[in-house]
């Protein structure tokens, strides 16, 4: 994997700017992530969303980056700069692989922002980090996320049955992955802000 810049780089697409979170974003994160429909399929976002968690989460990003373990971006809408959600990568240098994560505030669903932001994040993993593989998983029933991963060009790699316990119930997890050589032209166009092929 490549040497990284000192701080999380900003990624720009046609409609979005992905930048490091700042302490001033905590209120927006609390509102967006506080929606039960957003946290429903997320492993690390509790509901109700506790006071102070957004501040703590944002403050943790710098160490995760400087320790070479991952990056988290605020997905902001151009040109007004509103925070619409987040993307993240967690990587293991030994394996040259990274796990992709994302969520958007509910009012921002249905515009293709998740696909656009995720494509730019995956492009970063392959081109800047030098990853050989990017993978992701979603919980059973999360059809919106399944569509994002398929449109990214990821391959369905299997199901882990009853792998996650969330709010007292066991959930299957659906595994997806894409290799560097598979990350094709169509996906790069999405990363640059174009529409994905359907
Ligand atoms: C998963 C999640 C990010 C998907 O958001 P989304 O808005 O459905 O996904 P996209 O941003 O890719 O938008 C796709 C939709 O926008 C539509 N769209 C509208 N304009 C578009 C454009 N210019 N470009 C692309 N798609 C566009 C697409 O047709 C598509 O709708 P469809 O699925 O009905 O065909 C969102 O539902 C979410 O945050 N969920 C809660 C958290 C979560 O589950 N995170 C993932 C954990 S694995």
Mind explaining what this structure looks like?
It is a single chain. Helices cover 29% and strands 31% of the residues. The protein is an alpha+beta fold and 198 residues long. The longest helix has 15 residues, at 113-127. The protein has one domain (11-191): 3-Layer(aba) Sandwich (Aminopeptidase). 34% of the residues are buried. The structure holds coenzyme A. Coenzyme A (COA) binds next to strand 5, helix 4 and helix 5.
Multimeric status of the protein: single chain
Low-confidence sequence ranges: none
Q: What is the helix tally?
A: 6
Strand order of the largest sheet: 1-2-3-4-5-6-8-7
Q: Give the strand tally.
A: 8
How does CATH name the architecture?
Answer: 3-Layer(aba) Sandwich
At the fold tier of CATH, the topology name is Aminopeptidase
Bound molecules: coenzyme A
Just give the CATH class.
Alpha Beta
Characterize the biggest β-sheet.
8 strands, mixed
User: From the alpha-carbon coordinates, what is the Rg to the nearest angstrom?
Assistant: 16 Å
Count of distinct structural domains: 1
Structural class: alpha+beta
What is the secondary structure topology, with strand pairs?
Blueprint: E1 11-12, E2 16-19, H1 26-33, H2 36-39, H3 53-66, E3 70-77, E4 83-92, E5 97-104, H4 113-127, E6 133-139, H5 143-151, E7 155-166, E8 169-179, H6 185-191
Parallel strand pairs: 5-6
Antiparallel strand pairs: 1-2, 2-3, 3-4, 4-5, 6-8, 7-8
Helix pairs in contact: 1-3, 4-6
Bound molecules: coenzyme A.
